[in-house]
From TrEMBL:
Residues 8-119 form the Molybdopterin-guanine dinucleotide biosynthesis protein B (MobB) domain. NCBIfam families: mobB (TIGR00176). Pfam families: MobB (PF03205). This is Molybdopterin-guanine dinucleotide biosynthesis protein B (MobB) domain-containing protein. One of its GO terms (molecular function) is GTP binding. GO terms for biological process: Mo-molybdopterin cofactor biosynthetic process. It comes from hydrothermal vent metagenome.
Length: 177
């Protein structure tokens, strides 16, 4: 039984266009009435709080987690001793999103959710740490520019062809006809 909406994950090297593509896909899917959530893995320390603000002072005093809420926005901050699992993050979207766009988490499974991973390439299956072309977790590939067709039975999308990728997502992840 799935515990979260389906996930579409984009994996690839820094600067390959993952965030830009996700931004365009989110806008396109939202314009089609689809509720889209996003999860991004950061390899850097992050802090959405600001020094001197009340919430910062409460965190400095030892509050963990800390929630800041206004009428239309919720900010949830929690320090953890170990990395948070993708499945735990995805569960937070249940009932709030129809689909979740994920950047990163390339080696992490998500029990209870269907994950469709797209690998930025080529080379496909060259053992570059992004997965292998015949890996069952890879749903397809994203390329930039005019690149030769690769021998794979997985779909190959141009990075700027948002319409085609959005159509695939709607048909294969959201059961649109």
């Amino acid at each position: 039984m799935d515990i979260s909406p389906p996930l579409v994950a984009f994996i690839g090297h820094s600067g390959s266009g993952k965030t830009t593509l996700m931004e365009k896909l989110i806008k396109k899917l939202r314009s089609d009435g689809i509720r889209v959530g996003a999860i991004k893995r950061s390899h850097h320390e992050i802090d959405i709080d600001k020094k001197g603000k009340d919430s910062y002072r409460l965190r400095q005093a030892g509050s963990n987690p800390t929630v800041v809420a206004s009428e239309n926005f919720i900010g949830f901050m929690m320090e953890t001793d170990e990395p948070v699992a993708l499945a735990d993050l995805a569960r937070q979207f249940s009932g709030k999103a129809d689909i979740i766009m994920v950047e990163g988490f390339k080696n992490e499974s998500c029990p209870g959710a269907k994950v469709h991973r797209f690998m930025f390439g080529p080379p496909f299956g060259a053992g570059d740490g992004n997965g292998e072309a015949d890996d069952d977790s890879i749903a397809g590939f994203i390329t930039a520019g005019a690149q030769a067709e690769q021998e794979t039975d997985k779909p190959l999308f141009q990075r700027d062809d948002v319409e085609a990728l959005a159509g695939w997502i709607k048909r294969n992840c959201l059961n649109f006809k």
